[in-house]
Amino acid sequence: MEGMTQEATEKNAVQSRVALMGIIVEDTETAARINGLLHEYSAYIVGRMGIPYREKEMNIISIVLDAPQSVISALSGKLGMIPGVSSKCLYGKN
After folding, report:
1. Whole-prediction pTM value?
2. How far apart are CA 34 and CA 45, in angstroms?
3. How far apart (Å, rounded) are the C-alpha atoms in residues 94 and 82?
4. Is-contact 21 89, C-beta < 8 A?
Protein backbone atom coordinates (compact mmCIF):
# COMPACT_ATOMS: atom_id res chain seq x y z
CA MET A 1 0.00 0.00 0.00
CA GLU A 2 2.58 2.44 -1.14
CA GLY A 3 1.80 6.12 -0.58
CA MET A 4 -1.01 5.56 1.95
CA THR A 5 -0.81 7.15 5.37
CA GLN A 6 -1.11 5.06 8.53
CA GLU A 7 -4.53 6.61 9.23
CA ALA A 8 -5.83 5.74 5.78
CA THR A 9 -4.61 2.16 6.15
CA GLU A 10 -6.38 1.87 9.51
CA LYS A 11 -9.50 3.41 7.99
CA ASN A 12 -9.72 0.56 5.50
CA ALA A 13 -9.26 -2.06 8.25
CA VAL A 14 -12.22 -0.80 10.34
CA GLN A 15 -15.73 -0.29 8.99
CA SER A 16 -16.02 3.32 7.99
CA ARG A 17 -19.04 5.55 7.70
CA VAL A 18 -19.75 8.50 5.47
CA ALA A 19 -20.73 11.60 7.40
CA LEU A 20 -21.42 15.24 6.76
CA MET A 21 -20.19 17.45 9.59
CA GLY A 22 -21.53 20.97 9.90
CA ILE A 23 -19.40 23.43 11.84
CA ILE A 24 -20.54 26.91 12.90
CA VAL A 25 -17.73 29.28 13.88
CA GLU A 26 -18.83 32.38 15.78
CA ASP A 27 -15.33 33.35 16.99
CA THR A 28 -12.95 33.81 14.06
CA GLU A 29 -9.98 33.85 16.46
CA THR A 30 -10.39 30.06 16.70
CA ALA A 31 -9.57 29.48 13.01
CA ALA A 32 -6.02 28.24 13.69
CA ARG A 33 -7.25 25.65 16.22
CA ILE A 34 -9.97 24.46 13.85
CA ASN A 35 -7.59 24.17 10.91
CA GLY A 36 -5.09 22.31 13.11
CA LEU A 37 -7.70 19.73 14.06
CA LEU A 38 -8.88 19.35 10.47
CA HIS A 39 -5.28 18.82 9.40
CA GLU A 40 -4.90 16.08 12.04
CA TYR A 41 -7.90 14.26 10.55
CA SER A 42 -7.12 15.05 6.89
CA ALA A 43 -6.70 11.35 6.00
CA TYR A 44 -10.45 10.93 6.60
CA ILE A 45 -11.68 14.13 4.92
CA VAL A 46 -13.20 13.62 1.48
CA GLY A 47 -14.08 17.29 0.95
CA ARG A 48 -14.45 20.62 2.70
CA MET A 49 -16.36 23.82 1.99
CA GLY A 50 -16.19 27.03 3.99
CA ILE A 51 -18.67 29.87 3.70
CA PRO A 52 -18.13 33.24 5.38
CA TYR A 53 -21.47 34.71 6.48
CA ARG A 54 -20.39 38.28 7.11
CA GLU A 55 -23.87 39.66 7.82
CA LYS A 56 -24.15 37.33 10.82
CA GLU A 57 -20.43 37.56 11.71
CA MET A 58 -19.93 33.80 11.50
CA ASN A 59 -18.39 31.16 9.26
CA ILE A 60 -19.98 27.89 8.22
CA ILE A 61 -17.83 24.89 7.33
CA SER A 62 -19.08 21.61 5.91
CA ILE A 63 -16.84 18.56 5.95
CA VAL A 64 -17.48 15.20 4.28
CA LEU A 65 -15.75 12.36 6.11
CA ASP A 66 -15.24 8.67 5.42
CA ALA A 67 -14.05 7.33 8.76
CA PRO A 68 -14.84 4.95 11.62
CA GLN A 69 -17.60 6.17 13.93
CA SER A 70 -15.10 6.70 16.75
CA VAL A 71 -12.96 9.03 14.63
CA ILE A 72 -15.95 11.12 13.52
CA SER A 73 -17.19 11.42 17.10
CA ALA A 74 -13.72 12.34 18.37
CA LEU A 75 -13.32 15.13 15.81
CA SER A 76 -16.81 16.48 16.43
CA GLY A 77 -16.24 16.43 20.19
CA LYS A 78 -12.87 18.19 19.95
CA LEU A 79 -14.34 20.89 17.70
CA GLY A 80 -17.31 21.34 20.03
CA MET A 81 -14.98 21.97 22.97
CA ILE A 82 -13.51 25.05 21.28
CA PRO A 83 -15.28 28.18 22.56
CA GLY A 84 -17.39 29.83 19.85
CA VAL A 85 -17.53 26.63 17.76
CA SER A 86 -20.35 24.11 17.44
CA SER A 87 -20.58 21.00 15.27
CA LYS A 88 -23.14 18.35 14.36
CA CYS A 89 -22.97 15.25 12.16
CA LEU A 90 -25.33 13.65 9.71
CA TYR A 91 -24.58 10.03 8.73
CA GLY A 92 -25.21 8.12 5.55
CA LYS A 93 -26.76 4.66 5.73
CA ASN A 94 -24.20 1.87 5.45
Report:
1. 0.81
2. 14
3. 30
4. yes
